[in-house]
User: Fold this.
Amino acid sequence: MNDCLFCKIIAGQIPSPILYQDEAVVVLRDINPQAPLHLLIIPKKHIASLNDLSDADDALVGLMVRRAAAIAKEHGYDEPGYRTVFNTNRDAGQTVFHIHLHLLAGRSLAWPPG
Ligand code: 5GP
Ligand code: ZN
Assistant:
């Protein structure tokens, strides 16, 4: 996608530290962290929001969720816990229209969310 921030980061057009990547996903630290650990698990494929997922993306979304769980475990948050969030559109506060799974950990997180 031409004007997508995350596509530009993935393509190396905007330099950004990448914590992890494989053929399907990249993992970045959120630039405005909301918890001691706040990472973004981002597919290399441009998909604007969860509303745009198709059957063909089922495996990709599964990989994203399993990668979040693996990273949480690597950081020792599997037992204390962590939150994974996809924001979709206005009411959820989505600001980057390339899907990304937030991984938040390291503090007690309120529920319900604000
Ligand atoms: P959303 O609000 O769309 O669910 O989440 C977008 C997230 O991307 C926000 O938490 C925001 O802080 C983060 N973000 C925005 N621009 C950048 C950037 O250039 N680099 C990184 N690593 N995160 C970003
Ligand atoms: Zn994109």
